[in-house]
Amino acid sequence: MVFRSEEMCLAQLFLQSGSEYDCISELGELGLVEFRDLNPSVSSFQRRFVSEIKRCEEMERILGYLLREIQKTRIAVPDEDESPLAPPPRQVLEIMEQLQRLEMELSEVARNKEKLQRNLLELTEYTHMLKITRTFIHSRSRHEALGPQYEEFPTMETDSVTGCTGMQRLGAKLGFVSGLIQRVKVEAFERMLWRVCKGYTILSYAEVDENLTDLDTGEISKSVVFLISFWGDQIGLKVQKICDCYHCHLYPHPENDEERADVLDSLRTRIQDLNNVLHRTEEYLRQVLQKASESAYSWVVQVKKMKAIYHILNLCSFDVTNKCLIAEVWCPVSDLANLRGALEEGARKGDATVPSFVNRIPSTDTPPTLLRTNKFTSGFQSIVEAYGVGDYREVSPAPYTIITFPFLFAVMFGDLGHGIVMSLFALWMVLTEKQQKKKRSSNEIWETFFSGRYIILMMGIFSIYTGLIYNDCFSKSLNIFGSAWSVKAMFTNQQWTNKTLQTNSLLTLDPNVSGVFTGPYPFGIDPIWNLAVNRLSFLNSYKMKMSVVIGVIHMSFGVVLSVFNHLHFRQKFNVYLLFLPELLFLLCLFGYLVFMILYKWLAFGARDSSQAPSILIHFINMFVMQGKDLAPLFPGQTGLQIFLIVIAMLSVPVMLLGKPLYLYWLYRGGKGLRRRRGYERVRRVSEDDTSAAPSYEDEDEEEGLDETPGREPLPKEFDFGDVLLYQSIHTIEFCLGCISNTASYLRLWALSLAHAQLSEVLWGMVMRLGLRITTRVGVVFLVPVFGLFAALTVSILLVMEGLSAFLHALRLHWVEFQNKFYHGTGVKFLPFDFSLLPSVFEQDGLL
Questions:
Q1: pTM for this model (two decimals)
Q2: Alpha-carbon 142 to chain mean position
């Protein structure tokens, strides 16, 4: 990883006719350059290679249909280890013909299969209808009613003399309509029959036992077989229309049992034949799709690359002779040799008689920002770029973030046990990363964790370190080196007796007694503090001061990094008028606070700790010029504090007025051509707009030189008010930010204590309950207790607390650290790279 973005250049590519396709293909495989659009005023439909792009889109449509059919049959599409190259233009038509033939064949087979399935469903429904309606007829033959009898219609009653009904005397014939209807429509269907036919129909229905597929929608649903008996042709027409309105599937009703049996036998034979034919059709369709799936991945990649190449060719412009394509690209200076090699290889593949070449051209436009990363550093670079893409050639915070980000996280998350669990999880993802990449999971949460696996690994390792410093492992301390505190010395020196133990519930070890305290613990916090009642007060003081020390060092480092930007962009005046005042203001106030913390730790011991003054009181008195009656922390403290306050206060007007007055002097002063030349340079790279500032590393700074050719014209007017207003905002933000940012680092103390207390509460309320049972039953009871403890540890302490610490560490980097030197207003370098192109089929889950 580099400490600033790579140097870029603008280049013209002259691609000879006939080899332009192969040259762009080579560039896409290497991913070296970012193309600029030379036809911004031309619409997408009026460009030269529109027909080729439409052909690629047609092939994408066919491939989409093919992949959906493959997915329906649950055939896996094998991936290739190496991505296939873009096919030459002469093979494009061959691939198009193959895909069209395959589409026609699949469409025909699919239509035949659908027709066979429809016939099979119709025959199955007909079979169910015949079986169920037979029960209706048999129940009627046993003089059981087929449905409700309507006594209010005397025409339906049988005459006792003639034995005929009124409808039969009028010449009306009895008719039947049978079929199937969806279960949800039966009630409405029955009401409609009653209202329209005035009771001149008899409806009988029964539900089919098995679920059937709807012929029109393809959905599986419950169906009902119905039999409608009616008198007269007019009633029959009404019944027919009602059945059509409710999308009923009607089938002919046999007149007698012999005809019904013959139809059922015929249906069984036809269903068996259809099943055989359908099985052979599905086998043939599977064979075709299996063969197509072997080439599907290659076709998808080739079509994607072809379409991308023609899109790039549409960005190019033709020269006046129409024999050469001209492209403009941003390219890293270090990759120019590779760019020339790619053009030579493309010209060789395209059998061009005239080679393609590259020409570097000057430009006043702001180049894009390129920071090369690998699989380890890409996650940390993503954290930085979430704030904003760095300006061109600006100092990048990413290399320092690799250390500072997991360290600040670990300060808030410090626990040896939790750090080990997090490290093992991240290490598993790192060791199995190749297998995980092949799976291509669509789970967004898992993808987020997997892409940040190296960040999680570093956070876990640093958490192990800080856990050892805090001597915390699942809220318990480890007595590795043995405590430096001794209880025995209190009895030896007759400070304690047996009566003292009996009469006091709490006892205090006095380090001033010889032998009680033998020295500091070799590494981290002494484990005896885990037993102390005042443990929280001790850790509060320690972690709060530690947070302030870390915060001031972190912010000072950010201010120091800004000097590298000033020197690189030839802004030496900013070193004296911005960097030095900012650093002096920060160190004279908060650097002095850190000095007092360290001095108090070193100067006062156990014997004179009661005489140690309060740092906070001294720091407040430093601003209000009071506290002369307080004991000083060290000799000469008052004079030093007055000196530091004066230096800090003098830094403010320098920050506020120094840069605006200097720029005004450069523009209005009387130094001949140096005046305008110097102002032009400063204007282009000042006002913290380094994104628009090219580097003039090759220019000398001798006075009296003429203006360098190719620069921007000089501004006609200098607006002193704008510059002063901008600098006023910057000064106020920095001065107030030093106070608020230092206080913001106290979150390290707060979250560290919160994490430790949550861990202690979880141990006391869950794990300790299982450990208290000393009988054999306790061993069995300990298993679910440990499972609950592990689940709560992972969900609350690792996931929720880890996410909280992650977000707070992110804020400390974005707001407190990066704003001291990093502007993040640049444009990211987006190379033309086939491996970075999105695939519509992967987004749709077809690959």
A1: 0.79
A2: 72
